[in-house]
Amino acid sequence: MQGADRVAAILLTMGKSLSARLMKHFDPAEIKQITRSAADLRPVPAQQLTSLIEEFATQFAIGASLVSSSAEVERMLDGVLPKEQIDEIMGDLAGNPDHSIWERISVAGEAALAGYLQGEHPQTAALILSKVKSSTAAKVISQLPADRRNGIIRRMLAVKPVVDETLRQLERILFQEFNAILARNSGGAGQARIADIINRLDRDEIDAILQGLASTQPSAAEALKSQLFTFDDIAKLSQRARASLFDKVPADKVVTALKGTSPEFREVVLSVLSSRVRKMTEQELNNSQPMRQREVAEARRTITDLALEMASRGEIEIRDDNDDEMVD
């Protein structure tokens, strides 16, 4: 079964009460497609239904990917950004295409690789571990059961050069199978990665992307929105985080970024500045001439990027659920 047939089978298994509650979250076109599939659905063997439910439960537990493929990400950006910028973003999202599958595996995570090798023949596992980085191989080996570990190490000691065609075939298999495993297990990381990219866009571009995504995947849009951090979100930072952030921002950038903001938002920022810097900033805001929107946007982008960088280094927390300092 594929697509709507799988959805219909799961909903029918859930029963009327629960499935009716879930159906409210689909749009009319999706409901029509699911209904048609349910009406045409042939009897599903118990074993197949069990496998389908287990697959659904597993994906639900680990978190489904925000976007299932890079092609969908590209479609999401199409019409919002110029093609050159889309190409740059897609290249950033996909990583360096020149990296071999061995380099990608080496940085993908030892737990994922160890789990993958558990189902492979010891000889295949030995060949794979002999090709990845030594530091990665060592960490993977330490996670394997002793009996399997010893057998793999013996084979690694006896590994002989592999003919090119055999190695290329193994690389193709790894690219398909191992990357698929990573995709299933990296839903949260994928969301964070896409959010990190979209965070670098202008406010209008972010709104356009979220609006376009919400029309087809409302739940995905909400998940993405919750991970974004814009200049307006500075008001949601704790007092300590704001102080740490603006301690690193030049005074002229603060003045430019605060142009056009509300008095309430200005006070949130000014309250964390030293007395001398605050007085100077207020004077500049009251006396300076109007600035171009592009200059204001660039200053705000600089401050937002700095906040994201500081958060990635653990210097500040940009999403503090216990913080009640918020400005409407």
Write up what this structure looks like.
It is a single chain. With 328 residues, the chain is an all-alpha fold. The chain folds into 4 domains: 3-62, no CATH class; 70-96 and 187-225, no CATH class; 101-184, Annexin V, domain 1 (Orthogonal Bundle), CATH 1.10.220; 231-312, Flagellar motor switch protein FliG, alpha-alpha superhelical domain (Annexin V, domain 1, Orthogonal Bundle), CATH 1.10.220. Helix content is 70%, strand content 0%. It contains 20 helices and no strands. The protein has helices spanning 3-14, 16-23, 28-40, 46-62, 70-77, 83-94, 101-106, 110-118, 122-131, 134-143, 146-157, 164-184, 187-198, 203-216, 218-225, 239-246, 251-258, 263-270, 275-287, 293-312. The protein is extended and about 75 Å long. The two termini are 48 Å apart. Residues 61-69, 95-99, 185-189 and 321-328 have low confidence and may be disordered.
Q: Tags for this entry?
A:
mainly alpha, 328 residues, Annexin V, domain 1, 4 domains, extended
Helix and strand arrangement:
Layout: H1 3-14, H2 16-23, H3 28-40, H4 46-62, H5 70-77, H6 83-94, H7 101-106, H8 110-118, H9 122-131, H10 134-143, H11 146-157, H12 164-184, H13 187-198, H14 203-216, H15 218-225, H16 239-246, H17 251-258, H18 263-270, H19 275-287, H20 293-312
Mean pLDDT: 75
- Helix and strand sequence: HHHHHHHHHHHHHHHHHHHH
Share in helix: 55-70%
Structural class: mainly alpha
Report the C-alpha radius of gyration, rounded.
26 Å
Number of strands: 0
- What is the tally of helical segments? 20
**Sheet of most strands:** none
Domain count: the total is: 4
What's the architecture of the largest domain in CATH terms? Orthogonal Bundle
Termini separation comes to: 48 Å
Uncertain segments are 61-69, 95-99, 185-189, 321-328
Strand content: under 5%
